[in-house]
Structure formats: C-alpha cells, structure tokens
Amino acid sequence: MKRQFPRISELRPLMQFGRPGLDRRAARLARAADIDDLRTLAQRRTPRPAFDYVDGAAGQELTARRTREAFASTEMLPRILHGTAAADLSTPIAGGTSALPFGIAPTGFTRFMHAEGEDGGAAAAAAAGIPFTLSTMGTRSLEQVAEVSDAVAMERHGSPGTRWFQLYLWKDRQRSLDLIERAAAAGFGTLMVTVDTPVAGNRLRDVRNGMTIPPRLGLKTVLDASHRPEWWFNFLTTDPLTFASLSTSAQDLQSIISSMFDPTLSIRDLEWIRSVWPGRLFVKGVLTAEDTRRSLDAGADGLVVSNHGGRQLDRAPVSLKALAEVRAEAGPDVEIILDSGILTGSDIVAALALGADFTLIGRAYLYGLMAGGRQGVERAIELLAEETRVAMMLMGAATVADLRREGRVRAPWL
User: Torsion-angle region of residue 206: left (phi > 0), alpha (psi -120 to 50) or beta?
Assistant: First the structure.
C-alpha cells in the first residue's frame, strides 16, 4: 500500500468545528437520539421518587413489560419503489386536525417531575399543533393551561390550541360538575373520562420511595438532592406545588388517590356525565368488547384503549393486543385512540396500522419534560415525529390513512 503525506487543501474542508453554545440544556437535548436517551437524561436530573413515579408501574410491572414486548414483536412490511415523495403526518381526531398522529396523554403531579410542568407540556403541544390533555390531578388549573395553550398556538398557527380534559369522577359529584363546567368554559373541546381507576394501583416503587405530595425533606431526600441541584433550585424557587382538586397537605400518594377516586363508579355515572357535557366524550380504559359496547351505549363518542401504562391492574390485557377486539365491536366509524407503552415512532405506526385512529404519549412526554422542561418535550415530539415519518416512508405510506391498509403490519397474536 503506497502512502503519502496528507494535503492541507484536502483536509481543510473536513475540519468543521461548530461554535460552542451557551445553552447547555439545548446542547444536551440535541444529542438525544431517541426517547431512551431522554429517559437517561431524565434519570440523571430528577430525584428518584419523581423519576420512579413516571418510570414505574403496578405490582411486578408485568403489564408494562408485556406492553413493550408486544410493540417489539410487531413486523412492518417495507414497500419498495412506491413513488412516495413525502409523508403527511396530519390526521383528523375529535372534531379537529392534529399535525401529528399523537397527542400528549393526561398525567398527574406533573410539576413534581419538572417545575415547568403542564406549562411546558401545553406550550410544546400547541407549538407542534397537537392536542394536550390536562389531568384532573394536574398541577396547573384549566384556566392556566388554556392561557398557555392559546398564547403559543395563536403565535405559531394563528388559531387556539387543541386541548382535552381528563376527568376522574369524584365521590363529590358537585365538584365533578364544577370541573366539567370550567372545562367547557375554558375551551377544552373533548372530555376524556378515565374509568380504570376505582382505587389506586399497587405501585411498589412509590411505596418503597415513600413518595408524598409535596415531598418531605428527610436525610435521604437531601442526599438525593445534592446530585440534582437544578431540580431542587427550581422546586424551591417557584410557586408551591398545589392541586385544585386535592388536599395540599403532605400525604402518601395512595391515600390521596383513594380519598379522591370513587369505587362505586357505574355506567349510570357515565350516562350522567354524557348528559352534562356538551362536547365530545371519550372513555379511557376500555380493553374488551363488552366494555366497548357498554361505553358506546352510554353515549361515548370515542374510546381510548388503555391499560393505564400498566400502572393500575398488573396482568391486565396489553392495549395493543386488545385493539383488534375493541375495533371489531366498535366498528369502523368510532374513533379509537391507543394509549400505553408508546416510546417510538414505530410504536405509533404499529398502533395506527392495527386499527387506532390516534395515539397518546405519556412516559415519553414526561421523560422529555424531566430532561429539559418545555425544550425537552419539544425534543420528544420532534424525535417521535421523525421516527414516524421515516417508518411511513419506508412502508410507502403517504398519509396516516394509508397505514390502515390491511397487511401493513403483522402481529403474532393476530
């Protein structure tokens, strides 16, 4: 092999050194190649009780693991020489149009994960043109989220933001009605009633961490904080963590949830909600044909196939596997949203190809939030959107509707 000295004229074009940026958060997030990288960042920057609340699930966490295994077991069929120049990721859902085939799922205690909380999530969703769902157990009010959502959406798109409200039916029906009326007044066009939480799931990580809201500052907490000073600085220098619908005193999570949720919730209560809610109504937590029919007969406009991310009943059915049964019972015209376990764009594509009209992201969004506030959520959305686009292009799908053609995705349980 003949060697020679390198020529400076040939090396010069290869020597590209970017200017070091002052925004360290942006630089960290830019290096994240997928949601798992954001999860790693989140774990480094968030106290263990908060991280485990997001990352964990109920019992032995079997449902959470089986959910991920189900997504991993699907096969996507590439389509060669398909002549598709671009992929349009927009899709109609709940009477509007989302720029992407996923939205942000409702999550509780969100400012415990990062001081920006729902503000960061709602702003990122509005900027991306996708729905943001506020939880009954959120740490920002309906009115505050509406203000943030509309401000960003009007600036970016010239129209109000798309926002939905997730409702737990309280033991105090009047307080439930008050929330419903406030949601309608604040421009939340869709009500999502969660029905799989009559009591709190047995979340062992939270029990072992002694998680309370707000957190107690014991020796273990202080030692944990010493490795994550930014989180604690933000927590201690912003407004107190409060919940409009919950006690502000320090309680363990299971006690808070048990005092709020209603184990006597029945189909008659769903019918009552339908009678007082003027907008679209989705029922979240449907996994069987029987519950599909009961929900639709009670007046639901759409369904969310969800096992609560494996955080309620361990060994519950996997949402992705239950999707076919729910779709068969509901028929082709009922809008169905797939929730639980989505961490990649390929997961989103699989859900859409197997019968969902739309999807929701929970942990993926919170990993981004913990990694970098609103910027982190925007990065999570960006990563999932690009992964979805690439998968659609490789499968020859120009639109979300194209994904629903039979045979685009294979699943071993079908």
Answer: alpha
| CB contact at 8 A, 263 and 171 | no
* Apex 308 CA angle, 304 and 314, nearest 5: 130
Catalytic member of 82, 157, 227, 308: 308
pTM equals 0.92
Token reading at 265: 């919730």
* Whether 194 contacts 167, CB under 8 Å: yes
Residues of the chain with pLDDT under 50: 247-250
Nearest residue to 294 via CA among 337, 332, 265: 265
Residue pair 93/357 in contact (Cβ under 8 Å)? The answer is: yes
Q: Give residue 82's pLDDT.
A: 80
Q: Is 5 helix (H, G, I), strand (E, B) or coil?
A: coil
308 an active-site residue? Answer: yes
Amino acid at site 48: R
Closest of 399, 388, 395, 396 to residue 410, by C-alpha:
395
The beta strand positions in 147-301, using DSSP E, are 163-167, 190-194, 212-213, 251-252, 280-286
> ∠ CA 89-380-86 to the nearest 5 degrees?
25
CA 37 – CA 237 distance, rounded (Å): 28
pLDDT of residue 248: 47
Written as six digits, the tokens of 245 are 């619908």
Residue 214: cis peptide before it, omega within 30 degrees of 0: yes
